[in-house]
């Protein structure tokens, strides 16, 4: 079989390439050995956000008192919650289905592919030769060699959503975004939850902003143990123990391993294609080409940022290269990330620490509290703030913690993507009352000292006032 573009992997990255290329006239073959839609649809973004939404409804019932509505303890049917999760997946699945992509003109082969040459892959007995190959095989849960872990039952994001019984006491190894989202979801649904983190929880985020998230989770009942590197796991179903290197012991009924993800580089025959692997991931250049210039790699398999929206962005870069021969390059300074806890934690561009290291004394920082926003006050969601890092009137990074932070970061992702100035943002008219006013106010606050505390501005105003008829 010959084709223009062969895509390995039908997750977010691969599907974006296949759909775009086929609709623009290329002959496309798509290989997928597992579920169409990949991790995001089946084990990641969709099920986790559906579970968080159910947990939020339960928490609303507990916290209704502030609105003059009698709070009640929610009666949680965990099996029904998981039916809701499955329903969300099923509703979205047709968009990622084999039938849809075949309708777009893509040849879909549900089999594992392995390189046998620089641009030839064998799948299910068929040799496929392509002008260009795009590897988008994703990543799998990282399960480190912790003593005893292979002898006890444990969950990953690939098995968590199959459960129908609420965990009595959920132990979570890993305090990153996945671990903290699942910790809050389960404590709100009625589980006892302990997070065991080897270093610092949400350690990649601004510590000042992350602290608000951790305070809220602790208030809701999540136990958080930092600096607790797991050394041994023992027990049996319903009675598990995690021992840390410092001697601390944690006992629970269920164990979720949320320690990151490992690129799926095994079994692809990369050596036969001259494709190098570096630090466990496929090595790519700025154009997302591997060490074989006919082969590209995008998404989680490259070992970079692992976000669905980033996979879609990288797919666009590759499409411009393989379809039109354009020297498109990927950039990552404008890629946002969000942890969907409550409050949400969002970041685009540099954090404060990164911005100080990069820009030194040129850096100016503005903070704006949710407590001064009328919509936040009306909704009783005043917990949060926006932190704006700017250099010479342009944003270089924004951190937001609070309600709808993932929505609010969109404005700043646009600003960094298009090189907008703070003057551009301040000149925007935001509807009232909305949380969106926070971004405009932060930009306006940047200019306030320059306008209101400037003696020359005041003298100019007085002069103009004397001259006006």
TrEMBL record:
<dbReference type="Pfam" id="PF02852">
    <property type="entry name" value="Pyr_redox_dim"/>
</dbReference>
<keyword id="KW-0285">Flavoprotein</keyword>
<comment type="similarity">
    <text>Belongs to the class-I pyridine nucleotide-disulfide oxidoreductase family.</text>
</comment>
<dbReference type="GO" id="GO:0003955">
    <property type="term" value="F:NAD(P)H dehydrogenase (quinone) activity"/>
</dbReference>
<feature type="binding site">
    <location>
        <position position="260"/>
    </location>
    <ligand>
        <name>NAD(+)</name>
    </ligand>
</feature>
<dbReference type="InterPro" id="IPR023753">
    <property type="entry name" value="FAD/NAD-binding_dom"/>
</dbReference>
<protein>
    <submittedName>
        <fullName>Dihydrolipoamide dehydrogenase</fullName>
    </submittedName>
</protein>
<feature type="binding site">
    <location>
        <position position="113"/>
    </location>
    <ligand>
        <name>FAD</name>
    </ligand>
</feature>
<keyword id="KW-0521">NADP</keyword>
<feature type="disulfide bond" description="Redox-active">
    <location>
        <begin position="40"/>
        <end position="45"/>
    </location>
</feature>
<keyword id="KW-0560">Oxidoreductase</keyword>
<feature type="binding site">
    <location>
        <position position="300"/>
    </location>
    <ligand>
        <name>FAD</name>
    </ligand>
</feature>
<dbReference type="InterPro" id="IPR036188">
    <property type="entry name" value="FAD/NAD-bd_sf"/>
</dbReference>
<keyword id="KW-0520">NAD</keyword>
<feature type="binding site">
    <location>
        <position position="197"/>
    </location>
    <ligand>
        <name>NAD(+)</name>
    </ligand>
</feature>
<keyword id="KW-0676">Redox-active center</keyword>
<dbReference type="InterPro" id="IPR012999">
    <property type="entry name" value="Pyr_OxRdtase_I_AS"/>
</dbReference>
<dbReference type="GO" id="GO:0016668">
    <property type="term" value="F:oxidoreductase activity, acting on a sulfur group of donors, NAD(P) as acceptor"/>
</dbReference>
<feature type="binding site">
    <location>
        <begin position="174"/>
        <end position="181"/>
    </location>
    <ligand>
        <name>NAD(+)</name>
    </ligand>
</feature>
<feature type="domain" description="FAD/NAD(P)-binding">
    <location>
        <begin position="4"/>
        <end position="314"/>
    </location>
</feature>
<dbReference type="InterPro" id="IPR016156">
    <property type="entry name" value="FAD/NAD-linked_Rdtase_dimer_sf"/>
</dbReference>
<dbReference type="InterPro" id="IPR001100">
    <property type="entry name" value="Pyr_nuc-diS_OxRdtase"/>
</dbReference>
<keyword id="KW-0547">Nucleotide-binding</keyword>
<feature type="binding site">
    <location>
        <position position="49"/>
    </location>
    <ligand>
        <name>FAD</name>
    </ligand>
</feature>
<dbReference type="GO" id="GO:0050660">
    <property type="term" value="F:flavin adenine dinucleotide binding"/>
</dbReference>
<dbReference type="Pfam" id="PF07992">
    <property type="entry name" value="Pyr_redox_2"/>
</dbReference>
<dbReference type="InterPro" id="IPR004099">
    <property type="entry name" value="Pyr_nucl-diS_OxRdtase_dimer"/>
</dbReference>
<keyword id="KW-1015">Disulfide bond</keyword>
<keyword id="KW-0274">FAD</keyword>
<feature type="domain" description="Pyridine nucleotide-disulphide oxidoreductase dimerisation">
    <location>
        <begin position="335"/>
        <end position="441"/>
    </location>
</feature>
